[in-house]
Amino acid sequence: MQLKSRHLLGIEELAPEEITLILDTAESFAEISQREIKKVPTLRGQTVINLFFEPSTRTRTSFELAEKRLSADSLNFSPGTSSVVKGETLLDTARNLEAMNPDFIVMRHAMPGAAHFLSRACKSSIINAGDGSHEHPTQALLDAYTIRQKKGRIGGLKIAIVGDILHSRVVRSNLFLWQRMGADVTVVGPSTLMPLGIERLGAKVSHRMDEAVEGADVIMMLRIQMERQGRGYFPSVREYFSLFGLTEQRVRRAQPDVIIMHPGPINRGVEISSRVADGPYSVILDQVTNGIAVRMAVLYLLAGGSPREAAA
Amino acid sequence: MSRLLLKGGRVVDPANAVDDVRDVAIETGPDDSGGSILKVERGIREERGDEVVSCDGMVVAPGFVDMHVHLREPGREDKETIETGGRAAAAGGFTSVACMPNTQPVNDDQSVTEFITAQARRSSPVRVYPIGAITKGLKGEELAEIGELVRLGCVAISDDGLPLVSPFVMRMALEYSKMFGIPVINHAQDPSLANGGVMNEGFYSTVLGLRGMSPAAEEVMVFRDILLAELTGGRLHVPHLSTARSLDLVRQARARGVRVTCEVTPHHFTLTEEAVCGYDTNTKMNPPLRSEQDRTAILAGLSDGTVDAVASDHAPHCQEEKDVEYDLAPFGVVGLETSVALGLDRLVRPGHLDLSRFVQLYSANPARILGLRAGTLSPGAPADLTVFSTSRETTVSPDGFHSRSRNTPFGGWKLKGAVMITVVGGKTVFSALGRD
User: Fold this and answer.
1) ipTM of this complex > 0.90?
2) Distance of alpha carbon B250 from its chain centroid, rounded?
3) How many CB atoms are closer than 10 A to CB B147?
């Protein structure tokens, strides 16, 4: 089996079998990062451009490592050092990069739909590394990989995802994925940060943290962007933490083997207490580790690879 | 005197309660636009020298009026000019258009109004009626010299896409404009509630991660404007009304006797917010495409008479301005060359409207709202006519547009209905006859 599209623009376009294919393939790539020589020749001779219009440490580094471990030639391109500051449009930037014949463009952009726009203008495979509040598909895939690693499955699990639901691309990608895999999902956050119609993506909506984490198998906390405070969405970080912050008391309401996730970067004391973030249930750093294997699998499958030969 | 004789067409002229097969004799005037209607009768005898056009199987109607277009001249001639916009209007079946004042410079003083009318006389095949600014520089603060603008030919006032935020200024505009008998056209949208949105707020904005504009942003201002029109007795016209509740507000206000009229656009009665999926920037307009429920309500308002007029909100933009991220693209689509075919295909063909009501919406009503000598085939009226077919198919081909811009979401659509002939002042300014 292969992926239907040569782009990864979002989870919305993926079928459940494709998601499983990526996760299975990632399992065979995970082992490479444990080797002494962490490199396979799989993508030798292929070029990847990491086009990051928004600052990102985790995602960009993770992609870069995935590319290097597959022996691809990768280069990083960020707007601060490019002609974008001179007023070049995304279309012209894309056409210029395209003229250099890259095989992949991995793009992070502040505006929703930017990856779709790029995929219409380019022949290369486009990987969406986050487009505004829309999607962040490799994040959802590495989250799914981590859940499967710890729980053995995704279907039937009780998952609570907490925070700024309105502005989060991580939420959208994860909801698409969890809906396809049959999880029981509750989105939790202030009513001012809850987008319309979110229930239609297969989630229950809650504004009561204590109830929402009751019996949860997975709690995923989202970063609260400090700039939302003072814009009228909620009155203060203090009140936010008291209503929605993840404390040890709240963790105790969940299943005894609950896992705590966070896409990072975390705000200690804003959405999650340090004791929880560093505690035994936290898999936040496993998510980071798994990100590399998942991104290797995505690159490999988009290049037309088949799961059988992966990591050979 | 030479004559143009349109023979054998189905004449639909709601102003004279006519819907029957008739011939129309037109005086083709001594100058270009001076001709008038001579008579509308059965079996008019041909006279020597007559130009005779057979209209068998076609509908002959009073010339259509698009009361809301942007011609971009002066200032943005790269998007459109009065000439190219006028040609687009002619090809789209419109004999009169009213153009918004958001030019550069703004049409807020007599020199700009005079330029527009002079340029229209020089270069436009159709009649162009300027709409003046409500406030100086469209700043929403001080009233423009409205009396002067009206004296020089402005037929309404509007700050175009910029909502009049101050209720006091809106009240003054409604009071002051009463002296001149013109309507105040206010883009009803509370900027604080619209919150920088780029599409309708709802399930699709959630899925697409795009910032949504609540329908309430429109509705609160429609309601405010209605209350102020009621207070002042001024004439309010709501442009591009787009939500079910706005329509209810207008319906209720009119029942109370408030002087309020409204228009809807072809894109709002044809498309919904679902069209934004895929991020095509030609689906980005303001007000945004709304929900299916809103669209259905608009269809009901069109058929029950709550909606007075169809207007295109023709908003030409350059290709490179639209070829960007959705958030960065300007709002607006061109509409002059698709409006009539969309109306025939989406309103008449499914039976939402009969042809008489259709002609009211496209001709008689907008003419009445703006006080134009148009919208009727009475003898002596200016010879402005639109001849169209309800059976002939139009394939929307942006590359063939007369407009200088191509920003339409309807490229490639096949629509049942086509403009056949456009006559302005007795002069044929567009004809699709003999083309196949």
Assistant:
1) yes
2) 19
3) 13
The verdict on A70 and A171 lying in the same domain is no
Q: Region A219-231: what's the mean pLDDT? A: 81
Contact between A196 and B324 using a beta-carbon 8 Å cutoff:
no
pLDDT in tens, A128-173: 999 999 999 999 999 999 999 999 999 999 999 999 999 999 999 9
Q: Hey, are the CB atoms on B209 and A91 less than 8 Å from each other?
A: no
A47, part of any domain: yes
Q: Is residue A118 part of a domain?
A: yes
B115 touches chain A (CB under 8 A): no
B277 reaches A (C-beta below 8 A): no
Of the candidates B424, B328, B330, B315, the one whose C-alpha atom is nearest the C-alpha of residue B85 is B315
For residue B214, CA distances in Å to A273, A279, A288, B53, B188 come to 36, 42, 38, 51, 12
Contact between chains at A89 and B201 (C-beta distance less than 8 A): no
Q: What residues of chain A lie within 8 A of the CB of B203, using their CB?
A: 196-197, 200
Task: Yes or no: say if B319 and B282 are a contact pair by the CB < 8 Å rule.
Answer: no
- Same domain membership, residue B208 and residue B180: yes
CATH number of the domain within which B39 lies? 2.30.40.10
Within an 8 Å CB–CB cutoff, is residue B207 touching chain A? yes
Domain count within chain B: 2
Whether residue A150 is found in the same domain as residue A255: yes
pLDDT at position B364 over 60:
yes
